[in-house]
Amino acid sequence: MSIIITHNAFLREALKWVLEHSFTTREICLIDLEGCSCLQNLMCELEKYELSSDAEFYFLGSRGIYSELLAKFDVISSHSSINDVLNQLSNKRGIGMTDLVEHVYACRTLKDLTKSQLRTCIMRRYKSNASIAQTLRVSTKTVDSTLYTAMQRLGLSSVTNLQRYISCEFSGFELDWLLLRHGVWF
Predict the structure, then answer these.
(1) End-to-end CA distance of the chain
(2) How far apart are the C-alpha atoms of 30 and 56, rounded to whole Å?
(3) What distance in Å separates the CA atoms of residue 90 and residue 184, rounded to the nearest whole number?
């Protein structure tokens, strides 16, 4: 059984044909990150399927925050030809559900960030760097550096993508919960 999660009907049909004719014994789940609105929705989508522990997950994407967050799993370029996708699926073993869940959990809890980075990232959702610096009584250069380091820890390519990720992925309530959970106060 193969699963294809995408909003692109043409891509779905092409991948469906490839998987039906090439990988009959492997349980493959292909996820198009171009239509991913947040990791929580992605995990909810996966819960709809009865996947075995042998299921292999592969990601398709090009640029964007979710392709960057999942880059450690070798995201297949969405600009690849069907033959290139077929070759990559043939030559690689996808990631397992356990590794996927652990990574998504780490991304959703921002567990790789220090308390200072977490606070600054969350404050950046609502304030400018200068305002954050004033509130925390540090220099704007310190705020810039903290955001840059947080961006690198999450595997994102820019502070803008970091800000976009925080804004898209988390509600205000979830951010408050993260601060409370990590014992961070303003």
Answers:
(1) 49
(2) 8
(3) 46
* C-alpha to C-alpha distance for 85 and 140, rounded to whole angstroms: 45
What is the residue type of 9?
A: A
Tell me the H-state helices in 1-64. Answer: 9-22, 39-46
Among 37, 69, 178, residue whose Cα is nearest residue 120? 178
Q: Is 144 left (phi over 0), alpha (psi -120 to 50) or beta?
A: alpha
* CA separation for the pair 52, 1 (Å, rounded): 10
Which residues neighbour 75 within 8 Å (Cβ) at sequence distance 6 or greater?
Answer: 33, 59, 60, 61, 67
Tokens of 111: 């567990």
pLDDT tens digits, the chain, 186 residues: what are they?
688 988 889 888 888 888 887 766 788 889 999 878 888 888 888 888 888 888 899 999 887 899 999 988 888 888 888 888 888 888 878 899 999 999 999 999 999 999 999 999 999 988 999 999 999 999 999 999 999 999 999 999 999 999 999 998 999 899 888 888 877 766
pTM value is 0.82
- Here the tokens at position 124 are 């950046």
Q: How far apart are CA 3 and CA 49, in angstroms?
A: 8
Is the Cβ–Cβ distance between 163 and 103 less than 8 Å?
no
